[in-house]
Specification:
2 domains; alpha/beta; PyrdxlP-dep_Trfase_major; transferase; 14 helices; 16% strand; four-stranded mixed beta sheet
Length: 423
Amino acid sequence: MQLLSQQITPEVFADHESEVRSYCRNWPTVFSRAKGAWLTDVDGKRYLDFFAGAGALNYGHNNTALKGPLMEYLAQDGITHSLDMYTEAKGEFLSAFNELILAPRGLDYKVQFPGPTGTNAVESALKLARKVTGRESIISFTNAFHGMTLGSLSVTGNSMKRAGAGIPLVHATPMPFDNYFDGVVEDFNWFERVLDDSGSGLNRPAAVIVETVQGEGGVNVARAEWLRALAELCRRRDILLIVDDVQMGCGRTGTFFSFEEAGIVPDIVTLSKSIGGYGMPLALTLIRPDLDVWGPGEHNGTFRGNNPAFITGAAALREYWADDALSRDVIAKGDRIATAFTALCEKHEGLSHRGRGMVRGLVFDDAPAAAKVCAIAFDSGLLVETSGPADEVVKLLPPLTINADDLEVGLAVLAQAVEEVLA
């Protein structure tokens, strides 16, 4: 099929698309094709992708190992839409997920398909926690991001995003994330004290929701010991622990689940983005079996049965998670990024870095410098975004499958952009 892309210019979107559009403002070109870690625009210029669909493309663009099963499925008129009816594609996905992910890790979860995106998974998790416990309050953390619908926004920290709700966001209380006080104060002191203090005004919460690495919040990494202490606190106080693994799951930090390093077992886990393998919408809410108290249809969504995503999701699990090769590769590439960032930080004042696996952040004391670096990188053919409360962090989310040569190309472009801005 011949697309009309050569006739499309950015003006079409400025004329007809809502002002809410975002990423395209920083990357003002019309993309046409993509393969692996590269995108190509309508003029033939190639861009190395260190953004990966905000983490939805862990296995790269148009991955051959996933495209083959998808094309075969569509060619034989496989079911595309099925709500929550039983289909072969869903059964294959559930079997692969249990065989390759849950069983080897000794995890026992029921799988809910709440709708197509991460915020759907978070909404269902919050709703279920309140139903199970009979309590309303949810504890979240400073600089958290959990989604853009009202329940997810209530546990999100960003003031600009929260203001977009247009109504009070209630029944959620923020607590300081790990190292929020730069190590000066033990972060759990306040949390535990207000739980015990009848005069604190804190209602006993139904759940705590946490990201092990806050991506949108600035690549803030929770220590394993902090996560273990949080899990133990929740266990002692009969508070459910929800881990939001929408962006950090599916191998982004090295292990399939980002919480594995800490050795904790959350009561509820949310997954989306790369769980569909190919970049197609899919979300899961993983529920401890005794918490699965939903009535039929009590939480639903028209597009919770995305069968093409079941096909590519199962193919990704079988291709990349039958052994630990990808995990080891992610850790090695993450170490290479960290080494490159250390060299930059030693060369330039006002720079630091943090991260785990293949989510890495380069932190600028002069916040506007981060956006300048990203703009120069784009002009040089590299897609990379900012994050953090002041957009002070250049955040790297390359495809996990990127080859070593392409990774070096991107790191070199980024280093040159930093040099131009800070020199």
